[in-house]
Write a structure and sequence with these properties.
Bound molecules: ligand PMT
Structural class: alpha/beta
Helix content: 25-40%
Strand content: 15-25%
Distance between the termini: 24 Å
Largest sheet: 8 strands, mixed
Oligomer: single chain
Number of strands: 22
Strand order of the largest sheet: 13-12-9-14-17-18-20-21
Length: 400
């Protein structure tokens, strides 16, 4: 079966030794039915001849920004408009740095700047270059802008050392592309409410009780759901992150305020994903004035906050409910209890004491526990990858 019939894919090839592998990528995409065009940097032509790509794709290959003046047709704009998807493989450190900074000094970088199509970058380079903070920062910037970055593979590199930096195998790159088109806009028509960040419970006008949630997990879920075509409402507590674009963003402070905003949207949504760290208690009597430092000891009386997710569970009609469990011990046992008590469809359990998991970091280690008892354990991965795993479970439930 040809999965990519009717799809226009633009491949950008930059100057790395792995450029030769991209010939096979182009060939596989062509066999899957895609219409493939290739733009090469000059450096890339040192590794593979444009003619090779031309023969494989049966399309002209583009290298020069200013070619034949008589046939000038603003190539970077027409190539950018052609693409349903842009793949950059191999993506060198130099290319990533230019793309992250909006530099447009050749045909490929200019085309990338003009292209609004989704983009997948496959970095490939020497391990030290990949791990260099400059490259890592550039990758982070690009990822935050919605570009899918394929993990470089490990193995022997052209420079003779062994490590991370190899271009993923052509088969793997093509699988990612097929997956992209299969899941593209799969959530369109669905309305999803995501909560993120910690709530902030006031003590007096200047002080509060809070927690370590940065909102990163919830923001990644909201962005992924948006990329998959959903209408997204993101209700965020105490976060310092910039609101993602093209979704309804509601900022709240306390658990009670979050409850009010969540309940106001609940009837109209198809799913709720509660990744917010809602405070279980709040101060009973909030002081209207700043509390003075007079006594040796200060006692604050705390009262229980509403359990938002439990309430959603009891009011549930057709909504899919997904909760999180932040635990420090007995992860699966405690998470299962929350799954039942809150009437959830599944729960994402994270042991927040594990390195690289939980609060504040860009990564997480989690397990998804479903109603039927099935458990899926995920290794350390970026919060954006975990967001995709969570949404693919949600998509399965929508499909049932
Ligand atoms: O924001 P980050 O820095 O990226 O960190 C991510 C995270 C660690 C906050 C996230 O992965 C996570 O675990 N979120 C849930 C935190 C939490 O409050 O867990 P809990 O086990 O206390 O609560 C269970 C569930 O009930 C959660 O879905 C929570 O949103 C919800 N809840 C809890 C208490 C309450 N009063 N009302 C609720 O709705």
């Amino acid at each position: 079966m040809k999965n990519l019939e009717g799809k226009n894919i633009l491949i950008g090839v930059t100057g790395g030794i792995a450029a030769y592998k991209v010939v096979e990528v182009a060939s596989r995409l062509k066999k899957l039915g895609a219409n493939v065009k290739v733009v090469m940097t000059r450096a890339a032509t040192e590794f593979v001849s444009p003619r090779t790509f031309q023969e494989i794709t049966k399309n002209a290959v583009y290298v020069e920004m200013f070619g034949d003046a008589a046939n000038f047709n603003v190539a970077h704009i027409s190539l950018a408009n052609f693409a349903d998807l842009v793949l950059i493989a191999p993506a060198t450190a130099n290319f990533l740095a230019k793309a992250a900074n909006g530099i447009a000094d050749d045909l490929l970088t200019t085309t990338i700047l003009a292209a609004t199509a989704p983009k997948i970058f496959a970095p490939s380079m020497n391990t030290n270059m990949l791990e260099n903070p400059a490259t890592q920062e550039n990758l982070k910037i690009l990822q935050e802008r919605g570009i899918k970055i394929l993990d470089a593979a490990e193995g022997e590199l052209a420079c003779g050392i062994s490590g991370k930096g190899r271009l993923p195998e052509p088969e793997k790159i093509c699988e990612e592309i097929v997956k992209f088109f299969e899941t593209e806009k799969i959530l369109s028509g669905k309305k999803i409410l995501v909560t993120a960040g910690g709530t902030l419970e006031p003590i007096d006008p200047v002080r509060y009780i809070g927690n370590r949630s940065s909102g990163k997990m919830g923001f990644e879920i909201a962005k992924s759901a948006k990329n998959l075509g959903a209408e997204v409402i993101l209700i965020a507590g105490n976060v310092q992150l910039a609101p993602p674009k093209n979704l309804k963003f509601v900022k709240v402070e306390s658990a009670e305020e979050m409850r009010e905003k969540v309940l106001a949207e609940y009837d109209s949504v198809d799913a709720v994903i509660m990744s917010a760290a809602v405070a279980d208690y709040r101060v009973k009597n909030i002081s209207p004035q700043k509390i003075k430092k007079s006594e040796e000891n200060l006692t604050l009386e705390l009262v229980k906050n509403p359990d938002i997710l439990k309430e959603l569970g009891s009011l549930k009609k057709n909504q899919i409910l997904i909760g999180f469990a932040a635990e420090t011990e007995n992860l699966l046992e405690y998470a299962r209890k929350k799954l039942d008590e809150k009437n959830l469809d599944f729960i994402v359990a994270n042991n927040v004491t594990v390195e690289g998991a939980g609060f504040g970091v860009d990564t997480n280690v989690a397990s998804i526990i479903k109603r039927n008892g099935e458990v899926k354990n995920f290794p350390l991965m970026s919060k954006s990858d975990l967001a995709e795993k969570i949404l693919s479970e949600l998509i399965k439930i929508f499909g049932e």
